[in-house]
Design brief:
By secondary structure, the chain is mainly alpha-helical. The protein contains 13 helices and four strands. The chain folds into three domains: 74 residues, no CATH class; 74 residues, no CATH class; 97 residues, no CATH class. The strands form two sheets. A two-stranded antiparallel ribbon has the order 1-2. The termini are far apart.
């Protein structure tokens, strides 16, 4: 009772100061509100409604606060996001591989190489429905209780499957369309030949399957480079810029692993 009397006598500023400075008090307060939020539906709905109303009424202040909060806590927020994304990804891969955690086609078991594949090849339309791709697919599958129609593939098998789908897709047979396809194929082969010193294989693992070989930015920053220079076809860009330095040939497994984790299991 004494603590309640003291708390009632405190000003809002004093309560705020105690909350930020007293770790034990802060932990107990957060736990109390979290337990109530999780168990009391009426309380939860009221809080959600209050948050939505506040955001609408103070939209500029909220945007400014969130922007500044991200700037001040960027490293922590990125680490937290990666931690949750890795947990979601592992849970989804475990479910759709029946606990084996390996590719459904080639049995590749390095988790860095694994991804979720739409069995019926509807990945593009599904990502448009969700509004984005990437790690959002894992949240979607967990939210909807792991629906059917998905499988675990390594990146190489996934891109090889996509390559086959594109090749089997009906194409225009006009002289111009045939010439463009032939030109793009030649540019791709020339780029692979140049940056692999004629070996036409992955610089990391030695994979020589042409279907799964791709161009990698050695120092990273590939996405930013493509956006900044408005590159629609990287092979064409390299061809008309006389094959500049800073690139190499990797298979999709090694490329994705370097891009997402900063290393490749083959290097360990």
């Amino acid at each position: 009772m004494f603590n309640i009397i003291i708390w009632l006598a405190m000003s809002n500023e004093q309560r705020r100061e105690r909350y930020h400075n007293d770790e034990e008090y802060r932990t107990k307060t957060l736990k109390r509100f979290k337990d109530k939020y999780d168990t009391d539906k009426e309380y939860r709905d009221r809080k959600i409604k209050q948050a939505i109303t506040y955001d609408k009424d103070h939209i500029d202040d909220v945007k400014q606060y969130r922007k500044q909060y991200y700037i001040d806590n960027r490293k922590y927020l990125i680490q937290r996001s990666r931690f949750h994304n890795d947990n979601n990804r592992s849970e989804v891969l475990y479910w759709y591989s029946d606990g084996l955690m390996r590719c459904n086609k080639c049995d590749e078991d390095h988790i860095e190489f694994l991804c979720v594949d739409h069995i019926d090849d509807t990945g593009v339309s599904h990502r448009k429905e969700m509004g984005a791709g990437g790690d959002r697919i894992y949240k979607y599958l967990i939210k909807y209780k792991f629906p059917t129609g998905y499988q675990v593939l390594c990146n190489n098998c996934n891109y090889s499957k996509e390559y086959t789908r594109i090749q089997n897709k009906p194409k225009s047979e006009t002289i111009y369309a045939i010439a463009i396809r032939k030109q793009r194929l030649n540019m791709r082969l020339q780029a692979l030949y140049w940056y692999s010193d004629g070996s036409m294989k992955c610089d990391c693992c030695g994979n020589d399957n042409i279907r799964v070989l791709t161009i990698d930015h050695i120092n990273g920053g590939g996405k930013q480079h493509v956006i900044k220079d408005k590159i629609k076809n990287l092979h064409e860009y390299l061809h008309y810029n006389y094959y500049p330095e800073g690139y190499r040939i990797l298979c999709w497994n090694c490329n994705k692993s370097h891009g997402q984790y900063g290393y490749c299991p083959h290097e360990k």
